[in-house]
Write a structure and sequence with these properties.
The structure holds two protein chains of two kinds.
Chain A (H helix, E strand, L loop, with lengths): L13 H28 L6 H21 L5 H24 L5 H18 L2
Helix pairs in contact in A: 1-2, 1-3, 3-4
Chain B lengths: L6 H36 L3 H20 L5 H22 L7 H19 L16
Helix pairs in contact in B: 1-2, 1-3, 3-4
Classes of the chains: A mainly alpha, B mainly alpha.
C-alpha cells in the first residue's frame, strides 16, 4: 500500500488556502505522535510490527508536512508540528503508558516548544 | 540471578545505552536534514530521498532509546536538540550569522532540554541516585 498524497491545494479555492495547510500541519503532528507511541511499543524494535508501523507513520507525517508547506510558511508549519508533537506525545504517554512528568518537566516542554518556534521563525 | 550483579547497575547501563541511541537518532536526523537542505539548492529529489531514509533510521534509534526513556522526554529532547543543531550547522557550514533571536532560541532549547530531563518522573524505578545525569 502506497501512502501517495496528491496535492489538493493547487486547485483549491482561495478560502480553503487559509485553513487546509493548518489542518495538514496538525495532521502531520498527530501522525508524529502516533509514530512515537508505536516506537515506544516496539520494545527497541524487537517487536518488528510496531517498529515498522512507527517508521511508516513518521514518513506519512513528513508527507503531510511537505503538503502543508505549499500553503504556509515552513516556520509556521514546524511550529504547529512541534506543538502537536511535543505536547501530544507527552500527554499520550502519560495517559496510555502512565509515564508521568514532574511540573518542571512541563515547563521544559514549553521551553523546547518555544525554542522550535523562535528558531524556525528566526 | 547469578549473572545479574546489581539491578541498579544494570539500569544505569540501560540508561547510558538509551542516551547513546537518542544521541544517534538526533545526529542521523540532523545529517539527513542538512543533506536535504544542501541538495534543495541544486534541485532534484536525491536530497529528499536521503532525508526520508535518515528519518527512518533515526526512528529505529529512537525506538531503542524509548525502550528505557519515557517517550515524551525522549521526543522533546530529540526535537529541541534537532532544531538547535540544525541552527548550529547553518552557522558553521552554511556561513549563516547568528542573530540575537537565534541565540535566545538556542538558550531556550538548552534550558528546556535540561528541565525536561530533570522533570522525568522515575516513579517505580526509585533509584534515587541524587538526580544527577552525567
Amino acid at each position: 500500500m502506497q501512502a501517495r498524497i496528491t496535492d489538493p491545494l493547487r486547485r483549491a479555492p482561495a478560502a480553503r488556502m487559509v485553513e487546509m495547510p493548518f489542518v495538514l500541519a496538525v495532521l502531520a503532528g498527530l501522525f508524529d505522535v502516533a509514530a512515537n507511541l508505536a516506537s515506544s511499543r516496539s520494545e527497541g524494535f524487537s517487536r518488528k510490527g510496531w517498529g515498522i508501523l512507527s517508521i511508516v507513520l513518521v514518513l506519512i507525517a513528513f508527507a503531510f508536512l511537505a503538503q502543508a508547506v505549499h500553503g504556509m510558511d515552513l516556520a509556521v508549519a514546524y511550529g504547529i508540528l512541534g506543538a502537536t508533537g511535543i505536547f501530544g506525545t507527552a500527554i499520550s504517554a502519560r495517559l496510555l503508558f502512565g509515564q508521568k512528568l514532574k511540573p518542571i518537566g512541563w515547563v521544559g516542554l514549553a521551553l523546547v516548544f518555544g525554542a522550535v518556534v523562535v528558531l524556525h521563525t528566526a | 540471578m547469578t549473572f545479574d550483579p546489581s539491578p541498579i547497575a544494570a539500569m544505569r547501563r540501560a540508561r547510558r545505552l538509551a542516551w547513546l541511541y537518542l544521541a544517534s537518532a538526533i545526529l542521523i536526523e540532523v545529517v539527513g536534514l542538512t543533506v536535504m537542505k544542501a541538495a534543495s539548492v541544486h534541485g532534484g529529489v536525491s536530497g529528499y530521498i536521503v532525508m526520508y531514509v535518515a528519518i527512518a533510521l533515526s526512528y529505529v534509534c529512537l525506538a531503542k532509546a524509548v525502550r528505557t526513556l519515557p517517550v515524551g522526554v525522549a521526543y522533546a529532547i530529540w526535537e529541541g536538540s534537532g532544531i538547535a543543531l540544525i541552527t548550529l550547522v547553518s552557522v558553521f557550514f552554511f556561513h549563516h550569522d547568528l542573530s540575537l533571536r537565534e541565540l535566545i532560541g538556542l538558550a531556550m532549547a538548552v534550558v528546556g532540554i535540561i528541565l525536561v530531563n530533570a522533570g522525568e518522573d522515575h516513579g517505580s524505578a526509585a533509584a534515587g541516585a541524587g538526580g544527577a545525569h552525567g
